[in-house]
Structure formats: C-alpha cells, structure tokens
Amino acid sequence: QVQLVESGGDFVQAGGSLRLSCAASGSTFNIDRMGWFRQPPGQQRELVATSGLGDNTFHAHSVKGRFTISRDYAKNTVYLQMNSLKPEDTAVYYCYAQVQGSTSYDYWGRGTQVTVSS
C-alpha cells in the first residue's frame, strides 16, 4: 500500500503563487507516475499534470506555462508550482500515484484546497 499526503493549499489572490507538495510513504518502490488532478466546485475531476520516470512530464493546456510539476525521487515527493493563479484555478487538488505496469490511478491523496480570489 501507498499513502499520499498533500499540503500547500491556501487562499491566494489572483496573480499569486502556491506550491503544492505530495509525499508518498509505504510501498513506494514500484511507483511509476505521480501527478495532480483537480476538482473545481460542482465540476468533474480533471488532470492537471503528471510526472513519470525519467522526468517525463505532462501539463494540461489550461495550466501550461503557469504550473510546473517536479519530483524528488529521494523524498518520494511530487510538487506542483503554481504561478499566475486565476480564479478558475480554484479547486481541490488531489495527488495520485500509479504503480509500474498499471493502467489505472492506483492511489489517491485526500486533497488540498486552493482558493484564488479575483
């Protein structure tokens, strides 16, 4: 089993920045991809960014150029640096981890709230 704990969510004004962190513990040896989803109020969960082995990253079009995903393999932690935040970035941000060979999102954190005021 893998446990994921997010932190860093906060209330911020438009144009501001936040850095989210997600620390993995437990059976982390076979984790392949880690990343972030978000769920705005009343909407479905959407993919934000992912990071695979070898720093293979993906960023959704809506956040490209503003958000950057990074990963510290020694600390089993993935980060999401969010700059130039907009009110539409308001959401609960969830971290996930996918094990090697899996085609599903195997583990999830409980989420951290990001609120951006206009």
> What value does the average pLDDT take?
95
The poorly predicted ranges are none
Largest sheet: 7 strands, mixed
Distance separating the two termini: 40 Å
Instruction: Note the total helix count.
Output: 0
Order of helix and strand elements from N to C terminus: EEEEEEEEEEE
Radius of gyration: 14 Å
Strand content: over 45%
**Considering DSSP H and I runs of 4 or more, what fraction of the residues is helical?**
under 10%
| Structural class based on helices, strands and sheet pairing | mainly beta
Structural description of this entry:
This protein is mostly beta strands and 118 residues long. It is built from no helices and 11 strands. Strands 2, 4, 5, 6, 9, 10 and 11 form a 7-stranded mixed sheet that branches. It starts with a strand and ends with a strand. The relative contact order is 0.32. The chain has strands at residues 2-7, 11-13, 18-26, 31-39, 46-52, 56-59, 67-72, 77-82, 91-99, 107-108, 112-117.
